[in-house]
Amino acid sequence: xxxxxxxxxxxxxxxxxxxxxxxxxxxxxxxxxxxxxxxxxxxxxxxxxxxxxxxxxxxxxxxxxxxxxxxxxxxxxxxxxxxxxxxxxxxxxxxxxxxxxxxxxxxxxxx
Length: 111
Description:
Blueprint: H1 2-7, H2 15-37, H3 41-67, H4 73-99
């Protein structure tokens, strides 16, 4: 959805804001992937917290886009709601990993 809004020209050539939005969105999933690939819960947790921060950054950028009338109220509400769903999922995974006795694949004994 966001990509189609940007591609439609709604952001009126605000290239810096577009770049910041795309960067924070990409950072959310990139940090999840990088943390997972490190195969240890502690590192994964660190990257999940970074992902949460990027999601907060994205919400801040949504406010800026809305204030500049690049987004309608409905578009803002939808994107904000989706970002909050992501935060809830990230927090749930964080809580699971923090309470898990598993430390990650790299700590399994090798045969």
